[in-house]
Amino acid sequence: MSDESPSDVRLKLRNLTLEDYPQLARLMETIYPDIGGAWPATSIKRLIQEFPEGQVVIEDSGHLIAAALTIQCNYDRFSRQHTYDDLIGRREQMKHDPEGDALYGMDLFVDPEYRDLRLGRRLYDARKEICRNLNMRAILAGGRITNYHKYADDISPTDYIAAVDRKDIHDPILSFQLANDFEVKRLLKDYNPQDEKSQGYATLLEWNNILYEPDWDDLSQHRKSVVRVGILQWQMRLSKSFEDWLSHVEYFVDTFADYQADFVLFPEFFNAPLMGLGDQGNQFEAIRFLSTFAERTIESLSEFAITYNINIIAGSIPVTEGELLLNRAYLCRRDGTVDYQDKLHITPHERRDWVIDGGDKLKVFETDAGRIGILICYDVEFPELSRLLARQGMDILFVPFWTDTKNGFLRVQRCAQARAIENECYVAIGGSVGNLPQVHNVDIQYAESAVYSPSDIMFPHDAVITESTPNTEMALVADLDLDKLAQLRHEGSVTNAKDQRLDLYEVKWMGKS
């Protein structure tokens, strides 16, 4: 290799075969002279027979130059203290467990002449792909700390591991494993007494498969990986009666149900046309007249959710509680349960003309299609709320809004896009369009409803899943892949949640739970 240029190299990643054993043995003898050299041919033969997909090699023009040997194991057993001998049976046979829920990395090695080509990373990536494809819980490995013998008289093995993690000390194996997303879970004592360089110690390393799905016996415990959301860019129109208005709502619920959507989002104040049925002379009284329809509205929407098998987010409607008037979004689940989120930050217009009060509770909602949050319009402009929801595992943030002008809409839009990036979640926004000349303070609307994603390679290049034509009644439907969020949070180009400096700052909820 040292006399060849990169253009002379012809690499091929493939599974190990019995015919490879002579080359494999020579390579292992070269790399492991201090801990026994090569595995016996019978051990390799049995490993290939029992778990062929787990044995991976890289060749250069037919010459074997790197390999990774892997078995299945029981996670609960080998995520605890164990030794190398616990993995080896009689006659040096690796104990492969075909019922195991995790992979165990037995060996991974590269020809010294090829170590400048990062072939170890290729093998780790291949092992991770096997873990995902077989729906294994994790990859475990007992890692050597081969430079520890140089420091053993001065520092403990735990201090040595910490120094390697800080990059104060370089260890050819541990440093590489940490760079490949493995975490040190514990120190293994007397792991392999034959390993004098490591003084018998090893690190228990773990890489978690964030896409792992347990085999649930209870169907209700199964998590959807792809969620379909529907957003209605709602046309405000004159309503002759409550029943007339409700018929339009049901039409769109039925439509989204035909597209097998898991959610349908209506805008903020989407029942505002009903104000036209009352006296418009006093706006304080008009909005309270609208609140008298709340109970009938939620009873009807809850029935629709069950009948059409869809979760309905009733954007917001005014609700009275005692002397207070609240702007409240309801979640009507298709299992018949109902929950709600009040608007917390009240705009000057709502406070001045309608005398609306802000709520005092914030929560993430459990649904059969992921954990969701709801922030009504102005609330999305306060990043602390989304951060608190993200800490509770929110996957999708729904933002029903009502804006009259484009600059008002842009405030909501820009903040919603920021919330998707900051909190590694999807954000769906839905607004209303059209005019209501007969209703004071709801004269004009401007909306461009959309679904936004985080900004990373696995999402659209502009971080926009879908968006509507401005100021036109439209129905948007989008599929949101929750597994991509899990991948982003664990191994994205940036990992916002993991990288927060909580030693320097914090966001703390002081209201009701």
Automatic annotation (TrEMBL):
<dbReference type="InterPro" id="IPR001110">
    <property type="entry name" value="UPF0012_CS"/>
</dbReference>
<dbReference type="GO" id="GO:0016747">
    <property type="term" value="F:acyltransferase activity, transferring groups other than amino-acyl groups"/>
</dbReference>
<dbReference type="InterPro" id="IPR016181">
    <property type="entry name" value="Acyl_CoA_acyltransferase"/>
</dbReference>
<comment type="similarity">
    <text>Belongs to the carbon-nitrogen hydrolase superfamily. NIT1/NIT2 family.</text>
</comment>
<dbReference type="Pfam" id="PF00583">
    <property type="entry name" value="Acetyltransf_1"/>
</dbReference>
<dbReference type="GO" id="GO:0016787">
    <property type="term" value="F:hydrolase activity"/>
</dbReference>
<dbReference type="Pfam" id="PF00795">
    <property type="entry name" value="CN_hydrolase"/>
</dbReference>
<dbReference type="InterPro" id="IPR003010">
    <property type="entry name" value="C-N_Hydrolase"/>
</dbReference>
<feature type="domain" description="CN hydrolase">
    <location>
        <begin position="227"/>
        <end position="482"/>
    </location>
</feature>
<protein>
    <submittedName>
        <fullName>Hydrolase</fullName>
    </submittedName>
</protein>
<dbReference type="InterPro" id="IPR000182">
    <property type="entry name" value="GNAT_dom"/>
</dbReference>
<keyword id="KW-0378">Hydrolase</keyword>
<feature type="domain" description="N-acetyltransferase">
    <location>
        <begin position="11"/>
        <end position="170"/>
    </location>
</feature>
<dbReference type="InterPro" id="IPR036526">
    <property type="entry name" value="C-N_Hydrolase_sf"/>
</dbReference>
